[in-house]
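Give me the fold.
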Amino acid sequence: MARTVREQQDKRREEKLKQVQEQVDEGSLVIREMTQKERKDNPPKPRKEKKKR
């Protein structure tokens, strides 16, 4: 059965998320909140405007 491009993208995303979760579980990856200094040094990027059809 052929998969659509969207289905392929979703499958790859799920595999990557699973890999990240495994790394967190085994302790080789730590996810933490940013410090105030890090937030100041790296402000959020503005969102791109969506194209209107």
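The chain is about 55% helix and 0% strand.
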